[in-house]
């Protein structure tokens, strides 16, 4: 019998394992391609078609999908090679050289890579349509057609080609160190662990404490990098801790030595299992923690959408008449308001002057129309920051050091007279890219008289009985403003930019946008969460599948000294509980801590903690179901094989 015939027979005997590895690769490619089709859809990513906050939320889940694909394939490949090492050892006993093994690895991995890529692209092409329809349904947007750009195929092919090349190179480099005795014993050997030392355990605990203190003391909206820094340090500490979990487990059981005698077999098995499982435990902890944390953020966005849309929009609808734009007549406005489903309760007008990067307001005009009590000295100005401090975002709050406005060829300089942080009126797009300053009314009138009249504008502020019913009147107002603006010369380079920057600001639009953004983020996080759950299932299955033959040998020996089926089932269940639930318990604590310290409104920490625990509970329930099913199948199969 030739080497090729032996290899083919082994391939037939292990067809299910080859198929599982192939399906894992194809699934990763399909998921990556599906996500890429959204990212490369130009009409979907165009802010004029889809809310910018929605398209901006593609980045973080996209990075997680890339990490998922890379980790998943690398882990599946490592498990597959670990399983094959015993066969490689057998081949070398029969006379194969390292060069023959390397050639076999290149052919096998090359064929699997090519067929996986083709299968993944084909299935991704089919599945991406369904995925896109689901997204459009969730964000409730029409007029954005589905399309697959050629870049999706290119990006996917390049990304996975690089991964497969790295995987093959890693396997080839390791093959130079292959020795027959080590290959034959590979499935029984514990993973190499140069971090297995009490010192590293202590360092890991110290790093976790430092990360927690850093988050508690330094985290703020103004210092948003703290959370990323803290998470990185925390996960490094967790990795060091997990790497030494076998040592810690040994110390704990030795401390309770009286009780440990009753579970000596379980303890011995767990020391070996924990020593072999540090990588998978850490990867699952990392993935699950980030999924719960990001899902919590998405739920917060949805729940906080009403508060923020109200805080940033004191008036239901507002728009600015400036630069010859948005100048609809009073009868036109009355006709629009007459068709509203809810009655108008107030209509106010604010005067302003637009200067480069500065919007100038009058103290007297604001007092008369908005009910403020401002008094600005002549020759001075007050900086106005229209921000909500606890909205979870970082804001630029650098005040204007001096205000210089030319009047009749002479530069008039105004001195700073203080700052106000309060939202007085809606965040109107055309006025949002500059500073607001409030000056004395006499100074305002002087500047107004000597300014180009196109730079002098009005802000219209409207309130209604029920702002939830203002969507129709807002759409009609936008339509009329766009029609009016099309008749004038464009202010920006094209009409689309004019429509974008001169559109009204409204409470209902911001509310719906925030709600859409949160729903979309939650969907993406749920999607990524399902991927991570599936990957954790497959990784655990790969691990147990790789060790199955050794477990069978071990329990057959225990059978000879009198262990019963019931005791075998109990022992296996205990081991599986550790593998299945330890990373989830760690993930719940990590995500809960960081969710609690998110920069939310005062008193909202307990609410975010509750959201985190609810999401964790859902995730945990899925894991419990998977554990119960897998434990039953695994134990039943093992006992059946033992009885043969």
From TrEMBL:
GO cellular component: plasma membrane
Membrane topology: Multi-pass membrane protein
Compartments where located: Cell membrane
Membrane-spanning intervals of the chain: 18-38, 58-76, 111-132, 152-173, 194-217, 229-249, 280-302, 520-542, 578-597, 609-630
Domain ABC3 transporter permease C-terminal: 63-169
A Pfam family the protein falls into: FtsX
Record's keyword annotation contains Transmembrane helix: yes
Domain of life: Bacteria
Primary localization class, coarse: membrane
Protein name per the record: ABC transporter permease
Organism of derivation: Clostridium estertheticum
């Amino acid at each position: 019998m030739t080497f090729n015939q032996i290899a083919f027979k082994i391939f037939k005997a292990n067809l299910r394992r080859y198929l599982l590895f192939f399906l894992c690769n194809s699934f990763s490619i399909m998921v990556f391609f599906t996500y890429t089709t959204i990212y490369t859809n130009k009409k979907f990513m165009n802010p004029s078609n889809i809310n910018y906050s929605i398209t901006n939320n593609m980045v973080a889940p996209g990075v997680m999908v890339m990490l998922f694909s890379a980790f998943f394939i690398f882990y599946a490949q490592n498990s597959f090679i670990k399983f094959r090492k015993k066969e490689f050892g057998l081949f070398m006993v029969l006379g194969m050289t390292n060069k023959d093994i390397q050639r076999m690895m290149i052919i096998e991995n090359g064929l699997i890579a090519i067929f996986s890529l083709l299968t993944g692209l084909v299935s991704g092409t089919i599945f991406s349509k369904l995925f896109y329809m689901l997204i459009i349904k969730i964000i409730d947007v029409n007029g954005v057609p589905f399309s697959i750009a050629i870049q999706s195929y290119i990006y996917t092919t390049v990304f996975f080609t690089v991964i497969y090349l790295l995987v093959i190179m890693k396997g080839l480099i390791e093959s130079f160190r292959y020795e027959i005795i080590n290959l034959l014993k590979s499935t029984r050997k514990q993973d190499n662990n140069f971090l297995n030392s009490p010192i590293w355990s202590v360092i890991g605990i110290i790093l976790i404490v430092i990360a927690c203190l850093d988050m508690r003391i330094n985290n703020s909206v103004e210092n948003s990098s703290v959370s990323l820094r803290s998470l990185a340090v925390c996960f490094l500490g967790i990795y060091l801790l997990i790497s030494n979990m076998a040592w810690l487990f040994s110390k704990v059981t030795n401390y309770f030595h009286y009780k440990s005698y009753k579970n000596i077999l379980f303890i011995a098995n767990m020391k070996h299992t924990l020593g072999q499982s540090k990588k998978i435990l850490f990867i699952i902890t990392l993935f699950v923690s980030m999924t719960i944390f990001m899902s919590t953020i998405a739920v917060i966005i949805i729940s906080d959408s009403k508060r923020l849309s109200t805080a940033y929009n004191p008036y239901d609808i507002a728009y600015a008449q400036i630069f010859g734009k948005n100048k609809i007549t009073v009868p036109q406005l009355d006709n629009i308001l007459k068709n509203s489903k809810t009655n108008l309760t107030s209509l106010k007008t604010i005067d302003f002057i637009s200067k480069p990067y500065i919007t100038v307001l009058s103290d007297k005009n604001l007092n008369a129309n908005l009910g403020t009590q401002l008094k600005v000295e002549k020759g001075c100005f007050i900086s106005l920051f229209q921000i909500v401090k606890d909205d979870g975002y970082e804001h630029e709050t650098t005040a204007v050091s001096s205000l210089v406005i030319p009047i009749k060829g002479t530069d008039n300089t105004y001195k700073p007279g203080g700052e106000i942080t309060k939202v007085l009126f809606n965040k109107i797009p055309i006025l949002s890219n500059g500073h607001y300053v409030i000056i004395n009314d006499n100074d305002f009138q002087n500047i107004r008289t000597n300014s180009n009249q196109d730079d002098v504008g009005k802000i219209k502020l409207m309130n209604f009985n029920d702002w939830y019913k203002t969507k129709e009147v807002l759409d009609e107002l936008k339509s009329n403003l766009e029609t009016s603006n099309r008749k004038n010369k464009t202010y920006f380079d094209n009409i689309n930019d004019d429509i974008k920057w001169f559109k009204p600001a409204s409470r209902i639009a911001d509310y719906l946008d925030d709600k859409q953004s949160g729903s979309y983020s939650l969907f993406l996080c749920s999607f990524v969460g399902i991927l991570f759950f599936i990957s954790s299932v497959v990784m655990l299955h790969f691990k147990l599948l790789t060790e199955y033959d050794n477990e069978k040998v071990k329990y057959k020996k225990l059978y000879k000294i009198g262990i019963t089926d019931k005791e075998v089932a109990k022992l296996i269940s205990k081991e599986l509980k550790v593998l299945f639930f330890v990373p989830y318990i760690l993930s719940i604590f990590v995500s809960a801590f960081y969710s609690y310290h998110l920069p939310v409104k005062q008193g909202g920490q307990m609410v975010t903690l509750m959201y985190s625990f609810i999401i964790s509970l859902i995730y945990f329930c899925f894991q419990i179901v998977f554990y119960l099913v897998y434990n039953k199948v695994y134990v039943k199969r093992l006992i059946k094989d033992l009885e043969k």
